[in-house]
Design goal:
single chain, 347 residues, alpha/beta, Spore Coat Polysaccharide Biosynthesis Protein SpsA, Chain A, seven-stranded mixed beta sheet, three-stranded antiparallel beta sheet, binds uridine-5'-diphosphate, binds manganese (II) ion
């Protein structure tokens, strides 16, 4: 009886131990290997998702960092250029406002670069760049942003009927007319010659300028004039100066024009554009009469002209023209490999 009872107690005891053991095994997943694997897999999948998410975050942060780095680099560049050239305007010195029409073509950035790096040498200088386009382009916007000059960026498209076609000879139609007029409107709207004196110069983007001419034109009282090199199919054209006064024009082509000189050969006191608020260039005047239109419109006479460049005996400005680059190997590359050079590289 006693033995039977103690055996029952032992069975009970083992039973309880076994149950505790099984519970333990089940609880820790040892008993059910399949369920355990599933759990692990779920855990792994969760970790994988988390890693993917973090990976995306890291990549995005990297992109942001690179964009910021690029911005900082641009700013440093900008500061470097500005630092070298004090852009603070001296109130006592006339400001030179250069009006430059420009249009999209393969050599545009090269022209603007050369021009801006001449202008960077000048104090009290403001550059008005007017694109011949329906919109201000990214190229010119970015270029101006980093050029280090004080500038205004405008645009106006030359209408088709007055626009030079690709195969037209360049003399067929006037170029840059609406753009120069827009530059003049900007001056009239935004400046006050009573507050700060100024001088206006029409600086085409392809010419070559000696710094000396800017120093001389800065003191223009009405209209100053000087010779221009490599223009009118001559080595130079020039005002004719006798006893310190302009008496006529040295030119082969249309010498009877009232002001037979190139756009690069004169500068005008800012005040005159306020005195004659209607005066502007026109697409409908005879060829070679742009300069005469504007100066006659302001009632300028030969007697008013101030000859510079050593009584007009020195050439300090050249009407250079850039050869249109030949890019035919781009087409050849395209035919051979399906693409030319990388269009993302700005030239
Ligand atoms: N220009 C322009 N649109 C054109 C052609 C020229 O705005 O369709 C600009 C050009 O960039 C330059 C000025 O007008 O600043 C004079 O043009 P270009 O140098 O071709 O004239 P040229 O030297 O033959 O007088
Ligand atoms: Mn030109």
């Amino acid at each position: 009886m006693y033995l039977m009872r103690s055996a029952r107690i032992w069975y009970l005891y083992f039973g309880v131990i076994l149950m505790v053991f099984m519970c333990f095994m089940v609880n820790f997943g040892v008993w059910c290997p399949n369920e355990n694997e599933q759990k692990l897999e779920n855990l792994l999948a969760r970790y994988r998702d988390q890693i993917k998410e973090k990976d995306k975050e890291v990549r995005e942060a990297g992109d942001k960092l690179r964009t910021s780095e690029k911005k900082i680099q641009d700013l440093i560049l900008n500061l470097e250029v500005r630092g070298k050239n004090n852009r603070v305007f001296d109130q006592s010195m006339p400001v030179i406002y250069a009006i430059t029409p420009t249009y999209n073509r393969s050599e545009q950035k090269a022209e603007l670069t050369r021009l801006s790096q001449t202008f960077l040498h000048l104090p009290n200088f403001h550059w008005i760049v007017i694109e011949d386009s329906a919109l201000r382009t990214k190229l010119v916007t970015n270029f101006l942003n980093l050029c280090g000059l004080s500038y205004t960026h405008l645009n106006i498209l030359t209408p088709k009927e007055v626009k030079l076609k690709l195969d037209d000879p360049n003399w067929l139609k006037p170029r840059g007319v609406l753009q120069r007029n827009m530059g003049l409107s900007w001056l009239r709207k935004n400046l006050n010659p009573e507050k700060q004196p100024g001088v206006v110069y029409f600086a085409d983007d392809d010419n070559t300028y000696d710094l000396k001419i800017f120093a001389e034109m800065r003191q223009t009282q009405k209209v100053s004039v000087w010779p221009v090199g490599l223009v009118g199919s001559l080595r130079y054209e020039s005002p004719v100066v006798k006893n310190g006064k302009v008496t006529g024009w040295f030119t082969y082509w249309k010498p009877d024009r009232p002001f037979a000189m190139d756009m690069a050969g004169f500068a005008v006191n800012l005040q005159l554009f306020f005195q004659y608020p209607e005066v502007e260039f026109s697409n409908y005047v005879k060829r070679g009469y742009q300069e005469s239109t504007i100066l006659s419109g302001m009632k300028i006479t030969l007697d008013d002209l101030e000859p510079l460049a050593d009584h007009c005996t020195k050439v300090l400005v050249w009407h250079t023209r850039t050869e249109t680059p030949k890019l035919k190997n781009e087409d050849r590359l395209n035919r051979k490999f399906g693409h030319g050079s990388d269009p993302n590289v700005e030239v």
